[in-house]
Amino acid sequence: MPIPDYLASLRKKVGHDLILVPTVVVIVRNSEGELLMVHDCDCDQWTIPGGIMEPGESPANAAVREVWEETNVIVKPTRIIGVVGGEGCETHYSNGDKIGWVATIFGAEVVSGTPVHDGLETGEARFVPDDERATLNVRADTIRFLEAERYDVPFFERSAE
Questions:
Q1: Percent of the chain with pLDDT over 90
Q2: Contact of 125 with 116, CB cutoff 8 Å
Q3: What is the pLDDT of residues 100-150, one digit of tens each?
Q4: pTM over 0.85
Q5: In the chain, which end has fewer C-beta atoms inside a 10 angstrom radius, N or C?
Q6: DSSP the chain
Q7: Residue range 63-77, pLDDT digits in tens
């Protein structure tokens, strides 16, 4: 779903102004260590599955739903990799909408399914080896999320105050 219904109704009131939203991002690797990635149609860049939480939805359920919607893969969240927000955590969509987001980054394992893009948000979905990922046009926030994956404990960004 490109925009949740509740957010669309909010947009009718605030227009394209910045809205702060809770989001999830899911780092999924297959048994070969390849990363599940999607090609984002809106920005024409590669990223990892994720999106805006729905009202009343738990972060873990949102993680499972977002991966399913964008890739047709069913996952099981296995850990929280970190939480990212603040500076640099804004998205400006091609229609003019702006959001600021706080992302809970999950690690997850594949339960079933083969990656298939949704044709709305994602133009391609597949497992990508790390060496190939370096050749793709990857969103800056995706690089930020993958850096958090390197830590053995949950990663929490702190500003230099």
A1: 66
A2: yes
A3: 999 999 999 999 999 999 888 889 999 999 999 989 999 988 998 999 898
A4: yes
A5: C
A6: --S-HHHHHHHHHHTTSEEEEEEEEEEEB-TT-PEEEEEETTTTEEE-SEEEPPTT--HHHHHHHHHHHHHS-EEEEEEEEEEE-STT-EEE-TTS-EEEEEEEEEEEEEEE------SSSEEEEEEE-HHHHTTS-B-HHHHHHHHHTT-SS-EE-----
A7: 999 999 999 999 999
Q: Are 80 and 105 in contact (CB under 8 A)?
A: yes
For residue 93, how many other CB atoms are within 10 A of its CB?
13
What domains can be seen in the chain, in order of their start residue? 15-152 (3.90.79.10)
Beta-bridge partner residues of 83 = 104, 156
23 near 52, Cβ under 8 Å? yes
